Amino acid sequence: MNPLGVHALVFVPGWTEAEARHAIAAAAHCEFDLIEIPLLDPAEVDPVMTRRLLDDHGLAATCSLGLSFDTDISSEDPAVVERGEVLLTRAVEVTAAIGASYLGGITYSAMGKYLEPPSPAGRTNAVGVLESVCRLAADAGLTVGMEPVNRYESNLVNTAVEALTLADDVGADNLVVHLDTYHMHIEEGGMGHPVHASGSRLGYVHVGESHRGYLGSGSVDFTTFFRALTDIGYDGVITFESFSSRVVSPTFAAALAVWRDLWEDGEDLASHARRFILAQLEAARRATWS
Ligand code: MN
Predict the structure, then answer these.
(1) Cα(147) to centroid of ligand 1, in Å?
(2) What pLDDT digit, counting tens, does each position of 190-208 carry?
């Protein structure tokens, strides 16, 4: 059975002790196995407090981030690249200290709209930093994920094939592809091929609807996606992700272009998402072709 997770920003905008307690209790109450904790600024996450609260609720955790234009390792500016490497290094340390074993997301570029295509020199910088970050992560027993995102959120990796190519260039055993149905729906030719192309290198999954609202209320082809996961025998984490300005900060909402809210009650949304994912997995397992 796949461990099922929920993104912390479904419940809280930040990670003070009160926010962490609320989010972890809510994820546990909704019967998820794990919570995904954003490390956009790793300094804002207290790993000792986080680990204690996770243990109290019997919940596991994963971590994710998106770099900024000020910490973009695919930049041509060495100072920007250096700041990105420092941030990723700190994120690896915090992930390990929390007791998590996965750090994913937009780990290869800024999370934001670029006004030009990636440059070869910038891509080479990203490969170099990812090589050393993956080495550090391997020493700490961590897996690093690269999440292809839509064209408005990065210019470097928009598809699974682009992630696989970048991962080949980095050449680290602990670097995996992290697929997100919301982004796939925009950029991929379908919901099955990227899963099959990734195969055993698929290491993490985000499930989100086409408008990032209630699963099943948009136009993502979840049937094809979950059957493909079943076909390749994917037994890794599946995490639900959704954002509403009812929860996230105005800055974060603007970064992800959350201009209208599709939900108000994070716990109702998350409980529904878990039931939806379990039903999709069961249906995929029961699909027959004879
Ligand atoms: Mn995602």
Answers:
(1) 7
(2) 999 999 999 999 999 999 9
CA of residue 64 to ligand 1 center, whole Å: 9
* Dist. CA 260 → ligand 1 center (Å): 18
Ligand 1 mean position to 101 CA, how many Å? 17
Query: In degrees rounded to 5, what are phi and psi of residue 261?
Result: -95, 130
pLDDT 10s digits, 30-61 = 999 999 999 999 999 999 999 999 999 999 99
Write the burial class of residue 2 (CB in 10 Å: 0-12 exposed, 13-18 middle, 19+ buried): middle
Kindly give the distance from the C-alpha atom of residue 289 to the centroid of ligand 1, in angstroms, as a whole number.
31
What is the model's pLDDT at position 51? Answer: 98
Task: Please state the three-class secondary structure of the chain as a single string.
Answer: CCCEEEEHHHCCCCCCHHHHHHHHHHHHHCCCCEEEEECCCHHHCCHHHHHHHHHHHCCEEEEEEEECCCCCCCCCCHHHHHHHHHHHHHHHHHHHHHCCCEEEEEEEEECCCCCCCCCHHHHHHHHHHHHHHHHHHHHCCCEEEECCCCCCCCCCCCCHHHHHHHHHHHCCCCEEEEEEHHHHHHHCCCCCHHHHHHHHHEEEEEECCCCCCCCCCCCCCHHHHHHHHHHCCCCCCEEECCCCCCCCCHHHHHHCCCCCCCCCCHHHHHHHHHHHHHHHHHHHHHCCCC
Which tens digits make up the pLDDT trace of 65-90?
Answer: 999 999 999 999 999 999 999 999 99
How far apart CA 251 and CA 245 sit, in angstroms, is: 10
* Dihedral Cα 75, 108, 8, 243, nearest 10 deg: 70
Q: Assign residue 199 a region: left if phi > 0, alpha if psi is -120 to 50, beta otherwise?
A: left
Show which residues are catalytic: 147, 241
